[in-house]
């Protein structure tokens, strides 16, 4: 189906590219190059499987197979037909098209997907005595990605099948605004936390951040919980190799991790969902979850990293008194209860963040969905900052 080595692209979110490149290199990838919300690398079958299994900050792993220029539907149709589709699946298989369009020549991604589907189906009819593969939008044999930027059309195979943020640990009735798992994993890594201290999420909701922290700390491959990957439907799927890699991943889990993951939320319902995720992933042995308001909870001593993901109040234009008071309470809580901790806050509300009353030592730009956010670091020292410098002889 594919050559022994080929170019692959790991898609990700804005701000996660360097982490993803580092993790790909650690898996043994070569020719690693950072792109916009993506990282390219040279892959083989084993590395492709590993990338889907291990990469916590990747959304999809795609394999480019063709690129051409098109400025109208006829040129699009002709370009798609230049691919020999029987190399990748048969007339008895199924396929699906995902299109992303940023072009003055093509206005609607659904129309582009339809024309691409027609071109592929017509090729099979011509070459397979009138028989063509069916469309399966859920679990097709092959999922095809078409990306059009200007007049450049890029065609790729999706080895993941569906977004890798779908880990398999969520339960129904989620938090009304659950954090994407890939964003949560990125937040954990951006803090610089190495798993050698405690971790706290005092506003944990349904537990995405604390769960991703647990996967990282205990060295649990996030893909172990998933049953479905696109490559498992491919004609050349190597089931024995996949089982071997999964067995190796299970052997690498650190069941002896000695620190504490702490999470709390004022909603008992959300804490129950967080516990479900912890049990599903196997991090429950290290997690302490409580139904408490964040200002009533104390993080595990003596030190660690904490991430706050408070409501942003973006629909209220940052001026709602309750939101401003909430951020002030966060600041008071940090000063009183988080000495020895590096605390990070994710927010899109730059007016409200001023009410924390502390100066951030670092700011990182990210997106939570379409919302532009800042990820801000506050180091809470024992005693005054002046005393810290004096102790260091500065």
What's the layout of helices and strands?
Layout: E1 6-11, H1 17-26, E2 30-35, E3 38-43, H2 45-54, E4 60-69, H3 73-81, E5 94-102, H4 109-127, E6 134-135, E7 142-149, E8 152-158, H5 181-190, E9 198-201, H6 208-217, H7 239-251, E10 261-265, H8 268-281, E11 287-291, E12 304-308, H9 321-337, E13 341-347, E14 362-368, E15 371-379, H10 385-391
Parallel strand pairs: 5-6, 5-7, 9-10, 9-12, 10-11, 12-13
Antiparallel strand pairs: 1-3, 1-4, 2-3, 4-8, 7-8, 13-15, 14-15
Helix pairs in contact: 2-7, 3-4, 5-6, 6-8
Whole-number total of structural domains: 2
CATH class of the largest domain: Alpha Beta
- How many helical elements? 10
- In helices, the fraction of residues equals 25-40%
Structural class designation: alpha/beta
Q: Note the beta-strand portion.
A: 15-25%
Largest sheet: 8 strands, mixed
Gap from first CA to last CA: 63 Å
Order of helices and strands: EHEEHEHEHEEEHEHHEHEEHEEEH
- Remind me, CATH topology of the largest domain? Rossmann fold
Return residue spans where pLDDT drops below 50 for at least 5 consecutive residues: 384-394
Number of strands: 15
* CATH architecture identity of the largest domain: 3-Layer(aba) Sandwich
In the CATH hierarchy, what is the superfamily of the largest domain? Vaccinia Virus protein VP39
What is the mean pLDDT? 93
Oligomer: single chain
Shape annotation: elongated
Tell me the radius of gyration: 24 Å
Major sheet strand order: 2-3-1-4-8-7-5-6
Protein name: Putative N6-adenine-specific DNA methylase
Organism: Flexibacter flexilis DSM 6793
GO molecular function, one term: rRNA (guanine-N2-)-methyltransferase activity
Pfam family, one: THUMP
